[in-house]
Amino acid sequence: MKALLIGGSGFIGTKLCESLDAEKISYFSRHRSEVLATKNIDHIQGSVEETDRLKDIVKDYDTIFYLAGVFDENEQKHETVTLNGVKAVVDAVKKQDTGQKLIFFSAINTDYGASEFFRIRRIAEDNVALAKDSLTIKLSNVFGDGDRITRDVEVIAKSGVRKMPLGRSLAPVSVNDLVTAVKAFAQYKGTIYMCSKEDISLDRAVNIVRSRLRLSPVKTIDNKKKNQKIIAKMTERVNLPAWRIADLVLNFYRENTSLYRAVKEPEKYEDYLKAKYS
Question: Which CATH superfamily is domain 2-139 in?
Answer without folding.
Answer: NAD(P)-binding Rossmann-like Domain (3.40.50.720)
